[in-house]
Design brief:
Belongs to the FGGY kinase family. This protein is of the alpha+beta class. Helices cover 46% and strands 11% of the residues. It contains 6 helices and 5 strands, in the order αββαβαβααβα. The longest helix has 27 residues. The two termini are 24 Å apart.
Length: 149
């Protein structure tokens, strides 16, 4: 329900911003809150704020590692939030690839277990036995969002 409320809010959350560096959170808070601000605004602003931090961290990794990310692969619970996946694709300007299988940790443990008991000759051979399905989120042009954040 909260995701659907946030989906109705325009990119940029009508100027509502979440301020929080997850490493320090010394100056955490909200900006742009008015009497018309809804919980959908807060949630969308939180998703956008977290994605801004992801963007900064990815840029740092790209600079240090001398590479340019061509896509972002997501697994786990947070990857089930389709609104957040689309926000990530838009802000990072790269496709977001989401593994449809929610049990990746269990599958990975099983693969290494099969390798460990000699069922396969290598972890790579074990991995080749599973054919994952992915869902893609492609960047969409939202200029008002890019300017606001």
């Amino acid at each position: 329900m909260l995701i659907e409320e946030a989906r109705l809010i325009a990119p940029g959350a009508d100027g509502v911003k979440m301020q929080c560096d997850l490493l320090s959170c010394q100056n955490a808070g909200w900006q742009g809150v008015t009497l018309n601000t809804t919980r959908g605004h807060f949630y969308r602003a939180a998703l956008e704020g977290l994605t801004t931090q992801l963007q900064r961290n990815l840029q740092m990794l790209e600079k240090i590692g001398h590479f340019k990310a061509s896509e972002l692969l997501l697994v786990g619970g947070g990857s089930r939030n389709t609104l957040w996946n689309q926000i990530k694709a838009n802000m990072l300007d790269i496709p977001v690839k989401v593994l449809d299988d929610a049990e990746t940790t269990v599958a990975g443990a099983a693969l290494f277990g099969w390798y460990g008991v000699g069922e396969f000759n290598s972890p790579e051979e074990a991995r080749a036995q599973i054919h994952y399905q992915y869902r893609y989120f492609y960047p969409q042009t939202e200029p008002e969002f890019i300017e606001e954040v």
